[in-house]
Amino acid sequence: MEALQSEICATAARLVVEEGLEYGPAKRRAVKQLGLNARTALPDNDSLEEAVREYIEIFCGDTQPAELAALRKLALTWMERLAEFRPYLAGAVWHGTATRLSDIYLQLFCDDPKSAEIALIEHNVDYTPRTVTGFTGEDLEALSLSSMSPELGEPIGVHLLVYDHDDLRGALKPDAKGRTPRGNLAAVRALLQEPGHG
Question: Rounded CA gap, 47 and 24, in Å?
Answer without folding.
Answer: 13
